[in-house]
Amino acid sequence: MQVTFYGGAQEVGRAAILLEEGERNLLLECGIKLGETTEYPLLHDDELLRIRNITVSHAHLDHSGYLPHVYSKKARPKIFLTKPTRDLMGILLADYQRIHKSKNDRRLFGAKDVDDVMRDAQMMEYNEQFESDFKITFHSAGHIIGSAMTMIEDNGKKTLFSGDICMRKTRVLDPCERGLSADNLIVESTYGGREDIIPPYKESYQKMITIINETLKNGGHVLIPSFAVGRAQEVLLALDDYMRSGAIPQTKIFIEGMIGKAMKIYRHNAIYANDDIKRRILMSEDDPFNSPNFHHPRSKTREDVLKEPSIIVTTSGMLSGGPVLFYLQKIGNDPKNTIIFVGYQAEGTRGNALLAGSKILTIDDNEVEIKMRVESVKLSGHADFNELVQFIRSVKGLKKVFLMHGEKTDLKDAIENDYEVVVPRVLETYSI
Question: How would you write 408-421 as a 3-class SS string?
Answer without folding.
Answer: CCHHHHHHCCCCEE
